[in-house]
Amino acid sequence: MAPALLADLINLDLSDCTNKIIAEYIWVGGTGMDVRSKARAIFRDPFRKGKNILVMCDCYAPNGEPIPSNKRYSAAKIFNHPAVKAEEPWFGIEQEYTLLQKDNNWPLGWPLGGYPGPQGPYYCAAGADKIYGRDIVDAHYKACLYAGIKISGINGEVMPGQWEFQVGPSVGVSAGDEIWVARYILERITEIAGVVVSFDPKPIPGDWNGAGAHTNYSTKSMRSDGGYEVIKKAIKKLGMRHREHIAAYGDGNERRLTGRHETADINTFIWGVANRGASVRVGRDTEKQGKGYFEDRRPASNMDPYVVTALIAETTILYEPSHSNGNGVVH
To answer: Which residues contact 303 (CB under 8 A, 6 or more apart)?
Structure first.
């Protein structure tokens, strides 16, 4: 089909011939299974525009049980717990990703089979010799805004061809909904552009930064006067459950959390103020004001946002340690 005709058909205005809308359903997993989807969140469709919608779903087996990849089900139970609802947990997620050339899976802008200059000049940079894929990134930003996603920023990352977008603050389970739909929109845009998006936490081995999903978090108590003490208690709990969190924070994260490239070692839990090499970082403003939020820097770029957000809320609000498990906290 001729490209011009295809574009005309894609952009057909249906408003003068029907009042029907197109709803595109998005779900996670379920390969090889009979599933039933249930609509959970609705967004405006940036591709079809008009009154058309994107619908985020979770999925269930014919017997009504959630399928294994339906992590939203258990997350919703955590966020509907009265103690968690009372704390109004806010999340701001920094989703990093890498753009790859379709034919060779090598980062966009890199010489085929070779490497660009060392890291340093690429972070938040400008210029054709430093930034690759900005049109994709800007298109994604605007598409998410159109959809109604609480996207709050974008930036080029330390490794060339790697980017980040931020979503939030979002409350409770909606943080997971918005990240999944933002990822879907990014997949669609890169499909149109003929580029591959990778959420691998360490796409290029060696002296190159990995890709994470830093998760900023606060509760009502943390945002209130005296909140810094609440934050420190919450961080102590996170340290006690460090191994459990690491196990849930994404596949292949051991390749990223090495203690180098702005990460803490995967086997050590460290927190600090303005420390980008820590497991959990507290901002200077939070320390100065005595209230605010903190950043869990451990989650990998391929993490499931339902799992990560629910686990952080469970550990910091519901978990009551009975004794030390030997997994110490270092400040």
So the answer is: 213, 248, 249, 250
Q: Give helix 174-193 / helix 305-313 axis angle, nearest 10°.
A: 160
Residue 119's identity, in one-letter code, is Q
Q: Which residues of 42-69 are buried (b: 16+ CB within 10 A; e: fewer)?
A: ebbbbbbeeebbbbbbbbbeeeeebbeb
What's at 234, amino acid-wise? Answer: A
Sheet holding 36-44, edge to edge: 23-26, 53-60, 36-44
Q: H/E/C letters for each residue in the chain?
A: CCHHHHHHHHCCCCCCCCCCCCEEEECCCCCCCCCEEEEEEEEECCCCCCCCEEEEEEEECCCCCECCCCCHHHHHHHHCCHHHHHHCCEEEEEEEEEEEECCCCCECCCCCCCCCCCCCCCCCCCCCCCCCCHHHHHHHHHHHHHHCCCEEEEEECCCCCEEEEEEEEEECCHHHHHHHHHHHHHHHHHHHHCEEEECCCCCCCCCCCCCEEEEEEECHHHHCCCHHHHHHHHHHHHHHCHHHHHHHCCCCHHHCCECCCCCCECCCCEEEECCCCCCEEECHHHHHHCCCCEEECCCECCCCHHHHHHHHHHHHHHCCCCCCCCCCCEC
Instruction: Please name which of 257, 58, 96, 82 lies closest in space to residue 176, comparing C-alpha atoms.
Output: 58
* Tally of CB atoms within 10 A around 276: 13
Strand-strand pairing, 294-296 and 280-282: antiparallel
Tell me the backbone φ, ψ of residue 245, rounded to 5 degrees.
Answer: -70, -45
pLDDT digits (tens, 9 = 90+) for 33-86: 799 999 999 999 999 999 999 999 999 999 999 999 999 999 999 999 999 999
> Which domains does the chain carry?
3-70 (3.10.20.70), 78-318 (3.30.590.10)
Amino acid identity of 74?
S
pLDDT digits (tens, 9 = 90+) for 137-191: 999 999 999 999 999 999 999 999 999 999 999 999 999 999 999 999 999 999 9
